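User: Fold this; tokens only.

Assistant: Input:
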Amino acid sequence: MSTPSELVLLLLRIGFLLLLWFFVFGVVYSLRADLFGVRARKLPAEAAAATPAPAPAAAVSTPATTPASGIAAKAPAPVAKTGAPATASSAMRIVITSGPKAGLEIPLGSEPMTIGRSSESGLVIRDDYTSSHHARLMLRGGTWTVQDLDSTNGTYLDGKRLTGGPAAIGIGIPVKVGATTFELRA
């Protein structure tokens, strides 16, 4: 027959074992969050903004925006009166052409935009080949430039890896960050 002290000892052992397992799960969860990032839920407004807007039926010279999302709809690049294509300073949006967010369009302002895995980035790209703060897109003297922020896998402009300082981007020139490729569009 068990004495009360043996029963208390058994309960203490079970309690200690449960506490140990909670500790192990906490460590595993913390490591997963550090390695893969914390999962962020999309708010209903962000979910609607993430879906690409349909292309307009008629050709327009300026991008139309949908009032619900504020994301620019696809429109052909405007052509100047001389027949030359628009310059990089007339870029109004980023269009992701390949990768997990293909089709997403983001309007450009005049402020620099960081690209990376971090939730603080202006363009968040969650893949294994993108650094937390991978690249920076900025307007310098009327020309959009891209700068690699010492990323592990590099930033590629028109198929060539960026080295050194910022490089000018032309409209329609592909920029590759991780597994995502995007272009500037008017």
